[in-house]
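tool_call: predict_structure(chain=1)
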Amino acid sequence: MAVLIRNRQIVHDNWQWLEAVADDPLPDAGDIIVPLACWQRERASLLERSGRTGVWLDGAENPESLAEDIERLPLIAIRFPKFTDGRGYSAARLLRERYGYRGELRAVGDVQRDQLLFLYRCGFDAFALKEGQNAEAALAAFTEFSEAYQAAIDQRVPLFRRRVELREVGDGDRSR
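tool_result:
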């Protein structure tokens, strides 16, 4: 089982990951994460079950297909098929910025330590590390850089604007 980092802490994962198997019955209870196709096919019955239901997207699947259900989903996972596939970063930004998603946004698949800070800046708050990754060492990835140049989910104002604002505040103090 992959190690889960949520809100910059190593945690136990209570969610059960379900693959895209149409013939298997869905569990009646417990928290499950189903593929987008299953959600679209079984939406009504998934909403009625006693446990929570999350949805996972593959990198090629458009997050717009969940726009109407954003408020109903406590967890959306985006699967990275390989380390170099960047489509999940864009999907995360769309979910957070365009669709206003506030639930847990989890990166799964080929998720490695070197990606964590950048995934976080795009809106992910949970990370299922690839097998073999050291979770304790991975936590350091969030604090390796003290400043970011670009605007992102975690810092809406780019560095050059923040510096101008600081300079203007400093100049205002001198005029007294």
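agent: The mean pLDDT is 86. Proceeding to next step.
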